Amino acid sequence: MAHEDDSEDDSMHVGKLVRDRVRRTMKGVVLGVVAIVGIAVFAFIVMLLWNWLVPELFHGPRLGYWQTAGLLVLCRILFGGFGGARHGHWRRHHWREHWEALTPEERARLRERFFEQRCGRGAG
What we know:
Radius of gyration: 27 Å
Number of strands: 0
Order of helices and strands: HHHH
Largest sheet: none
Distance between the termini: 78 Å
Strand content: under 5%
Helix content: over 70%
Shape: flat
């Protein structure tokens, strides 16, 4: 009877693992679809704003949807926008905690290494 209970527990465990994997996969698919729809809507709104303002104010061209999407990708490549600042804030916070945990000697060594790498010379 003990072997029967073990196999039942194993099958319940495997079933839970499969359900969890399916749930995570579905969540990823839904998030992916939401992201794609969000980007498409954002591109459409940018296109509307561009076509409303630029031709009138600067005598510039009107853009189609795919031109607008391409312009957004180009801006992302050149300027790195769309929320990249959040990661920078996290890094600053991480380094502040790391810095505060260092001893004065470790801070001095880190400063010295920083100046050698950045400036090609020592701090003093």
